Batch of 2 targets.
Target 1
Amino acid sequence: MRLPEGLRLPPYGSATLADVLPGAATALGVPVRRGGLPADPLDLSPAVAGARRVAVLLVDGLGAELVAAHPRQAPVLNALGSPAGTLSAPCPSTTPVSLVSLGTGLPPGSHGVLGFVTEVPGEGRTLNHVHWRDDPDPLQWQAQPTVFEQATAAGVSCTVVAPHAFAGSGLTRAAYRGADYASAFSPGDLVAGVHAALRTGERSLVYGYTAELDLTGHVRGVDSPHWRAQLGIVDRLVEQLVEGLPEDAVLLVTADHGMVDVPDSTRLDIGAEPALSDGVRLLAGEPRARYVHAEPGAVDDVLAAWRAVLGDRAWVVSRAEAVDSGVFGEVQDQLADRIGDVVALARGSWAFTDVQQDPFGSMLAAYHGSLTRAELAIPLLAARGRALG
């Protein structure tokens, strides 16, 4: 099935976020296994040549188009070279899906974290992956080995430097297990933590994560002075990371998704459209990537109603059509029920909010989750330690 104009298919196994850590680990001598996908399709070995230490910094919400559009606020980022060009986020283009894709090196259909909020099949409840702790068990919900587990087994020292609040969370264990977790309490603490972790062991793989740019974008919008000021802080953070790189280290900078400002004119409140609730058992996903679970026997009617109401504002398809399209990569049979009976991916700047059930989430200025270029295109930038040239 072809996607409608304006939406893109993530090129799994060739140029997505899931290809970054496998390539970095391969360059460090780790025999990475990815379920049939190539170990290093980005050909990162030349960029990492000679390095014994690699740091990957993921800046939440740092879309490639946003970086290119702000050379004054982000001079360091715009001056860094790219070893593999622009990459793609997975589908949906949202943080939990992206982080687990990064950590496992696999598409969403293989690792099973298939949305910001998804149904727990058979239990009639949803799982918010950001608020996830122990239920369901992270090792069962996401059973694939991580790149960190494989690298640790190969003798590489692996560390995750990320906010203290996420230590031990379900998402952390799903995405990063196999690595030591070093809590960061501020941007400066993140920089120092990454530098310290890079100096451990004979070979080291370090992952750093910063979330404030994404939060600022959601609350203020990406076309705001607040977001641009926060981008400047990110640029300074990257500058400090580069300045303090060990001589035999490489820094890779990437992101989990971009972001789209959503004006009032392109918002549709699901609760204000009765036809969108008829036959619906459970609503999951997020405003630009909705999963609709229907009452028994009502799938066809729900699909028809959502197509009729949303029209060309979204790509509305059945679960089977979404799976067959390849937007999630190859979907394992036991994971398919986590996807809605109906999938609605926003086009343009549309968002499908739920004011009654999620008043705060419906008030945000910007969103992501769908398959527009602004949401999917993410950078891959590199800096090398002085001894590596």
Target 2
Amino acid sequence: MENKIAVVAGGAGGVGEGIVKTLLKNNFTVVVPTRSEHKAERLAEYVRDIKTGKLITRIGSVNNEETADNLKNFLLNEFKQINLAVASLGSWHQGYPIYNYPVNEWNRILNDNLTAHFLAIKTLVPLLSPETGHYVHINGFGAEEQSPMAGPVSMAAAAQKSLILTLSKELENTGIQVHELILGPMKTRDRLKHGHGKPDWYFPEEIGDYIIGLLKKEHSSNALHYLLSKSAS
């Protein structure tokens, strides 16, 4: 894992920060684009005790073309190629039946939970090394199950799954490995702070460990990986 470059889109979020921490422990240089300076500072504080690797935060994410292009130009200038791209993007919204969903919420969810993933692929896949490149997409169990009153989120998750399976087919002769991790509820810092979390839920850092296992070829090379709970794994 020495001298590897990773980009974690969504790395300042609840699951992403655990992945970032694990990558730093394995001596990666990790670039994290984020829309929020507060989240960038919170992430830096969270990994302050890790003395290996290097964290680089960038204000601006992949949720629109302009900031995605800025990120791509920065990565090209600094590194030319990257070894690992992780997309841990999206937001949750629940509260309306489909027939009554506000259009502004529909559009926001589509942008955050689908278009952002499309832009992450356009930005990061061309930079992946054909010899060592891995693209890891983080998805939720909404890709497999429907959540009443959260129709747009479930729909976008299913569309994400289709997007990544298609990407895997398109890249199968390039040497770049594509993985989709479908996760159940996670024991994120914020959930634990509010007393939520079950013993068989994964910690975000454990997802980072699993990704390291993918790079070391300790797991199947199939595009789909289900990590719903420890009891189901």
